[in-house]
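Subgroup meeting minutes
Present: P.N., E.W., G.H.
Scribe: E.W.

1. P.N. recapped why we're keeping a running log of single-chain structure predictions: easier to compare across weeks, and new members can see raw inputs and outputs side by side.
2. G.H. added today's entry (361 aa).
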Amino acid sequence: MSEPRPVAAKPRPIPMTPLPPEYGALDGRKILVTGAAGFIGGALFRRLVRYGLDVTATVLFPHEAEALRAEGHQAEVLDLAGDEPWDDLVADADIVFHVAAVFQEVELDARMYDRVNHLGALKLARTAGRVGVSRFVHCSTVGVHGSVQQIPATEDTPFNPMDLYHRTKLAGELAILDYARSPTNGRMTVCANRPAMVYGPGDARMLKLFRAILSRRFRMIGSGRTLAHLGYIEDQVDSFLLCAVAPSEAVHGHAFNIASGEPLTLNELVALIARHGGVPVARLHVPVAPVWLAALACELACKPFGIKPPLFRRRVGFFTHHRAFDLTKARERLGYQSKWSHPEGIAATVDWYRAKGYLRG
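Output recorded in log:
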């Protein structure tokens, strides 16, 4: 349900960037971005704003909407667990980027995860189709493949979700793509974008890793030979925009794995961060099993109190689950090519963390 619009404070000037020709089809379209208070959704929303496009953000809390309006943006409140109809919210949109989700909220139960990531996402897609939205880009995750056994994984690699977040995101993706192919959808083009491990300026999720390495407190859990496929935030935003402008016949009913460059081993990733941060690489490795058990104990101890544990099993999975993806489909159907190398992205991220005072030195 939309919140009443307060009188906005005088907005700060927004630096504009010319709309690149490859995204020219966005010009003149009305765009809705859900989850604009988050890292990925916020980066997408602000890129569209910089292009001078007609874009509205949705956020979960009224104070988040008020903050965006105070900056001169269009913003509405959307609770994906809510029962109210959303027709008015999406009625004027030509394109919907659905990025909002429940993520790493261990205090929430399975029912709430499913209500938001599966049922809420499907309800939004159905609403968009019913009111005449022309394109719906759903943000899923490469985590639907879990710890990949087929390296590199393609979009057709068997699903293997490893936790509640991935299971409910998979349920949402499959339900939305089933709807896309059904007669009830009508003419709305629908696709799913599966981001890899997205990082970059504005990200807080990877901050703990960068901070531990650059403060020389990092200890590798396991061998460090596990593969990680990173996605720099600017590449990820590009992939969303390409999903919105690619020919319908190339994307409708399809999912696309998205990442930057080639996968790295964790040892290589840690060495890159250390080098750009100007510190030596820590050589000590610790075994996986004790850390995993400690994470389980933390989750069990914190859950009755509704607090986020300092360590949880999903974070341990970072050190044990292979993530490596074949990007051929995105390249051929979307024209996607990553523009940021790992050294460039990591250097930019280290610089941003330091400029914000998040790192010492």
